[in-house]
Specification:
mainly alpha, 109 residues
Length: 109
């Protein structure tokens, strides 16, 4: 597994590629740097709004941090991104996570 420093270099070398940012955020999370991970996921989702896994993982990290309203917002944005990209499975997973937080989205028309 690349180090956080290596992943930051990959992000700098490939600014148009979302995957190094995702890897950085995941590595930060795995190292217990939850707030830094959330910030990295937020940057990823801002730059690549249809990168569905980023929204999903940001929701998980925010929920883990006890920031439930923000987790709901991340899942909601992720569901919309998943619908735009045709990723029904991810949309359903995030809908389930949203429901587990005690919130649901109205059915699509």
């Amino acid at each position: 597994m690349p180090s956080v420093e290596d992943l930051r270099k990959f992000v700098e070398m490939s600014p148009a590629d979302p995957f190094p940012r995702y890897g950085l955020a995941m590595q930060l999370k795995s190292e217990g740097a939850l707030e830094q991970s959330i910030a990295a996921f937020a940057e990823l989702c801002a730059k690549f709004p249809t990168y569905v896994a980023g929204h999903q993982q940001m929701g998980l990290a925010l929920a883990q941090a006890g920031r439930l309203d923000e987790a709901r917002a991340a899942y909601t944005a992720g569901i919309e991104a998943a619908k735009k990209t045709g990723n029904r499975h991810a949309a359903e997973e995030m809908q389930g996570a949203l429901e587990a937080l005690g919130d649901t989205l109205p059915p699509s028309k």
